[in-house]
Automatic annotation (TrEMBL):
Species per Swiss-Prot/TrEMBL record: Stackebrandtia endophytica
Keywords per UniProt: Iron, Metal-binding
Amino-acid positions noted as binding Fe cation in the UniProt annotation, renumbered to this chain: 78, 80, 122, 124
Top-rank lineage group of the source organism: Bacteria
Sequence similarity: Belongs to the pirin family.
Cofactor entry: Fe cation
The Pirin N-terminal domain, residue ranges: 45-141
GO molecular-function terms, A-Z: metal ion binding
UniProt cross-references to Pfam families, sorted A to Z: Pirin, Pirin_C
Cofactor: how and how many bound: Binds 1 Fe cation per subunit.
SUPFAM superfamilies, sorted: RmlC-like cupins
Protein known as: Pirin
Length: 321
């Protein structure tokens, strides 16, 4: 998914200096951002109060949207560097096309995992004949220095592990959780899981004390460590936990995101992740001049133009503003 902001901020994130060594309960609200012709997303990361959760550095939640008489998601071809995109649907379909020639329709419960490495471009759109509702999340994972120049790749998984018990159905999206591991390729220790809680559920989840975590509300209301979390919000939980109590009076779903705090400082602007401002400028120039990023076929329309870079120099701000 693209950041379609015409004046995207330059952010330097990463490092462990601002990672709390104790559990916290910081409830963060997202901001509504238009995405293409008819989709509005709730951007929850980066946020005014938090820039990363482990290697997770970008989180958009959208829907549920009634798109019966709408084109649905329409995101033209755009570039990425230095990250993985994680596409996760709860309702509907999204058609992925990329510069490797990959073409795949994503459906609920399947994982679309794109590793940009040194550079890739893709488009995302609702198919012409699409389901009436669209609901899902798009996330980015920052790649470490050792792997950020790797060859780009696209992976599709429709065999993700699912666990049910104690009123919770868990889909393991990335990483390992509760003894189950996703087949999705990762480059740093992390976890992403969707947890569906049946009405009346009250249970405790196992956690890794060295991970920092957050809970993203997908639907309904779920009490996470005693804090009510509803769609449009993300609860940052910090580190130092070996268990997490969750409860739901009615049916509800959260996405649990976590990982070891990301050691490196990164620069994130528009759809690029690099290490310096000069590197970001090079990525932008390559996109505008047709270098580095092969064309995306299968999308009826022009590619996105890169926004203008800001005039102000970059400033390191760490993981929190």
């Amino acid at each position: 998914m693209s950041n379609l902001d015409t004046h995207p901020a330059v952010r330097e994130c990463g490092g462990r200096s601002d990672v709390t060594a104790n559990p916290v309960r910081d409830l963060l609200t997202g901001r509504n951002v238009p995405l293409g012709e008819s989709t509005v997303v709730r951007r929850l990361l980066p946020n005014l109060g938090r820039r990363m959760i482990g290697a997770w550095c970008f989180v958009d939640h959208y829907g549920p949207d009634d798109i019966v008489d709408e084109p649905g998601m329409q995101v033209p071809p755009h570039p990425h560097t230095g990250l993985q995109t994680v596409s996760w649907l709860r309702e509907g379909q999204v058609l992925h096309n990329d510069s490797l020639g990959s073409r795949q329709v994503l459906t609920p419960g399947t994982l679309g995992l794109m590793t940009s490495g040194a550079g890739i471009a893709h488009s995302e759109q609702s198919p012409k004949d699409h389901a009436p509702m669209l609901h899902g999340a798009q996330l980015w994972v920052a790649l470490p220095e050792t792997d950020r120049h790797t060859a780009p790749s696209w992976d599709f998984h429709d065999d993700l592990p699912v666990d049910s018990g104690s009123g919770v159905t868990t889909h393991i999206i990335l990483g390992e959780f509760a003894g189950l591991r996703s087949p999705g390729r990762t480059f740093t220790p992390l976890v992403g899981a969707q947890l569906d809680l049946a009405a009346g559920t009250s249970t405790t989840l196992p956690m890794e004390p060295d991970f920092e975590y957050a809970a993203l509300a997908i639907s309904g209301r779920v009490d996470v460590d005693g804090v009510p979390v509803e769609p449009g919000s993300l609860l940052y939980l910090g580190t130092g936990r070996d268990r997490l109590p969750v409860a739901a009076e009615h049916d509800g779903s959260i996405m649990l995101l976590g990982g070891e705090p990301f050691e490196e400082k990164i620069v994130m602007w528009w759809n690029f992740i690099g290490r310096t401002g000069d590197e970001i400028k090079e990525f932008r120039s390559d996109w505008e001049t047709g270098k580095r990023f092969p064309a995306v076929t299968g999308y009826d329309g022009p590619a996105l133009r890169a926004p203008s870079l800001p005039d102000l120099p970059l400033k390191a701000r760490g993981r929190q503003r």
